[in-house]
Specification:
28 helices, mainly alpha, globular, disordered N terminus, Sugar/inositol_transpt
Length: 518
């Protein structure tokens, strides 16, 4: 029949989503798009640089003993570190109105400008208050860019490359940390405030590049459709996914799927914060945004990122040269792992990476705790060296699942109509958890020493159990079709979607919504 022929044609177009003929670098449209995607890919550079920087400057005598900071520790050190995350909490409230009203690109431009202003304050700081104000602005700008960047990557990337592209966005966290660590390593010999001012200046580099480069980047086709600019959306898809051919089967499939799904979502009035409380599927999404925001900060990485200086002191590594060198080289190892692991979500899935990463983090952090305690009690050099080795390894196992796969999962489970709001909730929780974490960690380390690590040993085990229980696999679906996994037959997916049709013919979809209801 005619309808069956249409279905077969649609399914043929759908099958081509993951089977682009030839390597992408031979395709002019994809080659241009993948080059431009590097602009939003830099979104996690600022928080990575910041985490490394605040740890690195603690290793500098000029920062510790200078008249600006007066050797901060305990509560004051916690405030200096946590001010970035307080900025994150404030910045979250700008994400949805900026990205939904003005578009993904303008939201990123605004965040980049604010981050540049924060860098200027930090670099010129004459006291702790000015430094904290700069970090507050950095947090506001950083969370806006960090939240919107992966969303824009996911909404622009070619379907078969979306998983890898979105996963790569979080690798820039390690790149920012590497640059901060090596600049600090080069500047620590300066006997002036420039020893910490020079590393502060370079925090503005990615924000400057993004503020300028964003104007060369296309806008999200999904945002354009939501604003009634269907032809502009089709032009973007055709130019970058079909080499200018508006009738390309893949382009037409994507366009019809986006058009139908967003129309259904708008018709169903799924565009308010209240919609988050409507239906078991959205309640599950709330839980995932909150839980992943907590896991992002409370998996021991806050100690390793912000207070590596203290961890190294606990195992007898005390010289500035040794500490800055370990910091720099460990960040290089972390970056190599994050880039290598970014190609895994599209091949082995999201769920296995999240679970294996968390299990290995628990093992490694337990070993760090035991070895640090052994060194503290005996002064054993082998225990010291082994502790440092496992600190390196921790970054690797953390990046296995909780760098690329985690961010990809967060973006995928949110339908377009609440994607910006869901990402805002995720970053709000991340900011609150980060602010609490970075404030409490130095107090806990100061009071309990290495025994404070046992909290994370227990907590990582709890995180593993919850992820095992609550997180299904999402690999192999488009951004629109993930709703079928979450909401089942109640998903707002276009009836023109061949995947929805096929699933519908097979009977009710076994979904998270049904699981929550039970």
């Amino acid at each position: 029949s005619k309808s069956s022929k249409v279905d077969r044609a649609a399914l043929a177009g759908a099958s081509r989503l993951n089977n682009k003929v030839g390597p992408w670098w031979n395709d002019r449209g994809l080659r241009t798009l993948n080059f431009l995607i590097f602009i939003p890919l830099m979104s996690e550079y600022v928080p990575g640089y910041d985490a490394s920087l605040i740890n690195n400057v603690q290793q500098l005598p000029e920062w510790q003993n200078g008249k600006q900071f007066h050797h901060p520790k305990g509560s004051l050190l916690g405030f200096l570190s946590a001010s970035y995350w307080v900025g994150n909490v404030i910045g979250v409230f700008f994400i949805t109105p900026l990205s939904d009203r003005f578009g993904r690109r303008m939201a990123m431009f605004f965040g980049s400008v604010v981050a540049i202003a924060g860098t200027a304050l930090c670099t010129g700081a004459i006291n702790s208050g000015m430094f904290m104000a700069g970090r507050l602005l950095l947090g506001i700008g950083g969370v806006i860019v960090g939240a919107i960047g992966p969303v824009l990557v996911a909404e622009l990337a070619y379907p078969s490359q979306r998983a890898t592209a979105t996963a790569l966005s979080n690798t820039q966290y390690s790149m920012g940390a590497i640059v901060a660590a090596w600049i600090t390593f080069g500047a620590f010999r300066l006997h002036s405030t420039w020893a910490w001012r020079i590393p502060s200046i370079f925090q503005a580099l990615p924000s400057l590049l993004q503020a300028l480069g964003i104007f060369f980047l296309p806008e999200s086709p999904r945002w354009l459709v939501s604003k009634g600019r269907e032809q502009a959306a089709l032009d973007v898809l055709a130019r970058y996914h079909g080499n200018g051919d508006r009738e390309d089967p893949v382009v037409q499939f994507e366009f019809q799927e986006i058009l139908g799904t967003i129309e259904l979502e708008i018709a169903a009035k799924q565009t308010t914060w209240k919609s988050f409380l409507t239906g078991p599927g959205n309640k599950w999404r709330i839980f995932i945004m909150i839980w992943f925001g907590i896991c992002k900060q409370w998996s021991g990485n806050g100690v390793v990122s912000y207070y590596l200086h203290t961890m190294l002191l606990d195992v007898g590594i005390k010289t500035t040269f040794e500490q800055t060198l370990i910091t720099a080289t460990s960040q290089m190892f972390s970056f190599a792992c994050s880039v290598g692991f970014a190609f895994l979500p599209g091949r082995v899935g999201r769920r296995p990476l999240l679970l294996w990463s968390m299990f290995l983090m628990w093992v490694v952090f337990l070993l760090i705790t035991v070895l640090t305690g052994h060194f503290t009690n005996t002064g054993s050099n082998p225990a010291s060296y082994a502790s440092v080795a496992f600190i390196y390894l921790y970054s690797g196992v953390h990046n296995l699942g909780w760098t690329g796969a985690m961010m990809l999962y967060v973006v995928e489970v949110l339908p377009y109509s609440i994607r910006a709001k869901g990402i805002s909730l995720f970053w709000l929780v991340t900011g609150l958890a980060g602010a609490f974490n970075t404030y409490v960690n130095p107090i806990g380390l100061d009071r309990f020493g290495y025994k404070f690590y046992y909290f994370y040993v227990v907590w990582i085990a709890v995180e593993f159990a919850v992820v095992w229980w609550q997180c299904p696999e999402t690999m192999g679906t488009s951004l629109e079709d993930v709703a079928l996994i979450v909401d089942g037959d109640k998903a707002a997916v276009s009836s023109a979607d061949p995947v929805a049709k096929v699933l519908g013919k097979k009977g009710p979809v076994a979904s998270i919504a049904e699981h929550v209801e039970k």
